[in-house]
Amino acid sequence: RLYQNTFEMPECKGESTTQTLHLIGDFSAPAEFFVTLGVFSFLYTMAALVLYLRFHALYGENKKIPFVDFCITVCFAFFWLVAAAAWGKGLTDVKAATRPASLIAAMMVCQDAGVTCDVGTTPAMGLANISVVR
To answer: What InterPro entries does its record include (predicted)?
Structure first.
């Protein structure tokens, strides 16, 4: 969950206790915006479907209803593009905050003289990148 921004790392001095570090920043807003827009899009789609199927005659007779429907659809398309960009920016921020070099710099035990901290592996972000593209 992106909004918790906490993780635990061993202190390495006794190997029996852990230190909780907090990431700087709140990375939940872009994801919340994306999901909220998705929910509103779904609800509007259901309402439009009812209008198209149940009140087809009203939709055909009144010339303002198709224009309003078109304008709302264009607005949703624009906001979807903005939400996808926000999702991508949020992912970039999470990747920067959880970069191994940033995590090592945040660990106080790595700042001690004579201590060498090494990155084991770089986290795989392939599925996260795909979530932005799709």
So the answer is: Marvel, Synaptophysin/porin
Residues 113-128 pLDDT 10s: 777 777 777 777 777 7
pLDDT digits (tens, 9 = 90+) for 46-64: 999 998 899 888 888 888 9
Q: What is the pTM of this model?
A: 0.66
Q: Which long-range contacts (C-beta less than 8 Å, at least 24 apart) are formed by 31-35?
A: 31/2, 31/87, 31/90, 33/83, 33/86, 33/87, 34/83, 34/84, 34/86, 34/87
Side-chain half-sphere exposure of 74, counting CA atoms within 13 A: 6
* Token pair of 87 as six digits: 């999702």
Residues, the chain: 134
